[in-house]
Specification:
Elements lengths: L29 H73 L1
């Protein structure tokens, strides 16, 4: 049965017969492994911070774009209303012309 090692185990692993001797460089001392873990955690924290900042910037950009879209929507609505009014005015003028031609 294989014995699990923890980060703080200092005893070297017992080698089985026939296994090649492997350097302990990969695992290192417990302090090296702890430093490696600390570096990984620090890196992960920095990534999380960067992602949070990026998320906040993107949320701000979304709000700005939504506001711009709302402005454009109201402008389109205003122009459509103006177009309908002009259409009605032109139709009224054409109707008046038709009455002049008939008379």
């Amino acid at each position: 049965m294989k014995q699990n090692r923890t980060l703080f185990d200092e005893a070297p692993q017992v080698k089985k017969s026939g296994e090649k001797a492997s350097s302990n460089k990969k695992e290192g001392t417990p302090l090296d492994r702890l430093k490696n873990l600390e570096d990984k955690i620090t890196g992960a924290i920095e990534k999380v911070k960067a992602l949070k900042e990026e998320k906040a910037a993107l949320e701000l950009k979304i709000k700005e774009l939504e506001a711009s879209l709302a402005d454009r929507d109201s402008e389109i609505e205003k122009l459509q209303t103006e177009k309908a009014a002009i259409k009605n005015q032109v139709e009224g003028l054409l109707n008046e012309l038709d009455t002049l031609e008939v008379a």
